Amino acid sequence: MDRAPEPHAGWTFVTNHARVLAAIAADHSTRVRDIAARCQLTERAVQKIITDLEDGGYLTHTREGRSNLYRVRPDTLLRHPADTPATVADLLALLALHDAARSTTATADVHNEH
């Protein structure tokens, strides 16, 4: 029951767009390669998602040397009418709670093994 779920090709509750946005929100100077590894996506898929997020007004980037510096627009409303009036900040807060709970559980599991 504590194992990670097996990967599959079906639908998921959290979209790849939300995963990429959360990864960028966690580190505004992260590389596409690192986002791809974190989200278990290809670099090409991440690049397409970043383009979608920029085109949708959820994200911007500026070039700094050889790197990109991303800026998430937290006050932007989520796309689906049923999510109104939720914003990007609301979504990221929910995902951050999930990550914090997962980290706490992982830490507790490590301590219980010893």
TrEMBL record:
- Could you tell me which residue ranges the HTH marR-type domain spans? 16-65
Q: Which domain of life is it from?
A: Bacteria
Q: By its UniProt entry, which SUPFAM superfamilies does this protein fall under?
A: Winged helix' DNA-binding domain
The name under which this protein is listed is Winged helix-turn-helix domain-containing protein
